[in-house]
What we know:
Elements: H1 6-18, E1 31-33, E2 49-51, H2 55-64, H3 71-76, H4 78-89, E3 92-95, E4 100-104, E5 107-111, H5 123-137, H6 139-144, H7 148-167, H8 175-191
Amino acid sequence: MDDGGQHDRVRRALAAATGAGDDGGNPGVAAVVDAGALSLLPERCPPSVVLTPHAGELATLLGARGEDVSRADVDAEPLRWARRAHELTGATVLLKGSATLVVGPGVVYAQADASPWLATAGAGDVLAGVLGVLLATHAERVLAEPGAAAELAAAAALVHGLAAERANPGGPVAALDVAAQVPRVVAELLAAR
Length: 193
């Protein structure tokens, strides 16, 4: 199927973001890589690149790198496979699931109090958007400190989970309702500092 060159454009953008194929003068940029773009990653990425797969996407990513792993394997041992993805790619990995795990250089964060209703269509896009804003806001720090992207990814997961709870406590949520609660959650978190 002809994608109109979309895959090539995404590969070039990811190469530029990761500094892949560069002479070393380009440190890359902070980036969020989700869904279909995961299959277009270069072999290695800096930790300023945050991958945001769910279990099935992580199994596919790992399989493309020679690992014999299924979605069920990732669901059974999410920390093991998120760590392996970090080892193989160099990127920070935010594995979405009943417990969201973030694995970066020398750090692991877990967030298990988000609503299971976040497994709804588009909710991952809200998470990627929140994370993208945090990475862009702190881009210099993310490039200078290897663990900074993981810290920000964990913060994004927290905001995302709290926004889902505000959108409909204990019940089903729609992605747009989660997104609508993000400013309120951020304001509350900043006021609590």
